Automatic annotation (TrEMBL):
It comes from the Eukaryota. Residues 27-295 form the DNA-directed RNA polymerase RpoA/D/Rpb3-type domain. The keyword Transcription applies. GO terms for biological process: transcription by RNA polymerase II. This is DNA-directed RNA polymerase RpoA/D/Rpb3-type domain-containing protein. GO terms for cellular component: RNA polymerase II, core complex. PROSITE patterns: RNA_POL_D_30KD (PS00446). One of its GO terms (molecular function) is DNA-directed RNA polymerase activity. Keywords: DNA-directed RNA polymerase, Transcription. SUPFAM superfamilies: Insert subdomain of RNA polymerase alpha subunit, RBP11-like subunits of RNA polymerase. Signal peptide: none annotated. Belongs to the archaeal Rpo3/eukaryotic RPB3 RNA polymerase subunit family. The keyword Transcription applies.
Amino acid sequence: MDFNTEYGVDGEDTGPRVTIRRTNETTIDFMLSSTSLSLANSLRRTMLAEIPTIAVDLVEIEANTSVLADEFLAHRLGLIPLSTRNVEDMIYTRDCTCEEFCDNCAVILRLHAANRNSDENVKVFAKDLFAETVSGQPIQDARYQRNGAVDGLSSSEELPPRGQPVIMDPKGNGSLICQLRRGQELRVRCIAKKGIAKEHAKWAPTAAIGFEYDPHNKLRHTTLWYEGTNAKEEWPESKNKDWEEPAPDGEAFRYDSEPTQFYVNLEGTGVMPPDQILHAGIKTLQQKLATVIQQLSTTTDSGHELNGAAGDAGMGGMSPPDPAANGTAYGNQTAYGGQTPAYAQQTAYGGQTPGYGGAGSAYGGMGGATPYGRSGY
């Protein structure tokens, strides 16, 4: 979905509008207007949990003589932000046709650090991780050259090659993994895969999302708890108050009013630029809604497929006919010419049913002899 900061989604004056107020390499502050609370909250939840990213999913410890346990190291490695450049070209491992993992669904990260003879602790950072393909070839991109810290991420083209750690600190080291004393060594092999935060938080592209509407509380969705006599003295006004007009004094409360402007402050983890998180959230939400619409357009109100057999043939058995027409199944003629076994009436085979007062069955009365000469009980 195309949108800009002046005219909103699709460049039209109608429909949802996005106004970007502030942005930098990790955060974006924007206003979403001309939409409903449910849609705005759906976008927030989508950006939190359903945007695909890349993270370390499997760690193979080849050597670890540090003071940290293998599980602790695996947890720290999983939280290192990895570049999501061209993540849309990757396949989820569960959907890939390979036996374990391949270049289409995984990126290999290797780390080998050791302190041979230094009395000072050797610090191991994310920059010491080197990405490679499953076949062992280094992952390189001529369009990207890392020289220390990244000054700003304004587009996905400024990210490192897919799967490489994102380095954003001034020293260009990245996240601290561990420290090694003399004689200690760490050698690991990490398999990074594509996933979403709904599966695990390590795939989350956002660290936090602030979400606010109705800064003057005109809709009274929030009850302000206060000890004094004036709530405004104990509750500081929101920084978004200047974007809306307060309710005039004496104005009657409208219980049916709904919010139309929403203020979102998004903080990313560095795996992708913050404006790209917004783009990806809108795209993912569109795909989810399109799937729902497609399912609804191919099914009836009762949940049956429209592309099934024509008419009632694919809908199961036909209901009993109207009594005023050809009669029901209770005591009237059946489709086979015989009468139904209804409540002590004659059956289509000549025998009487044992129904509610009927004396005998087609094989005799209760306790009588069966066709094989034995009693029914």
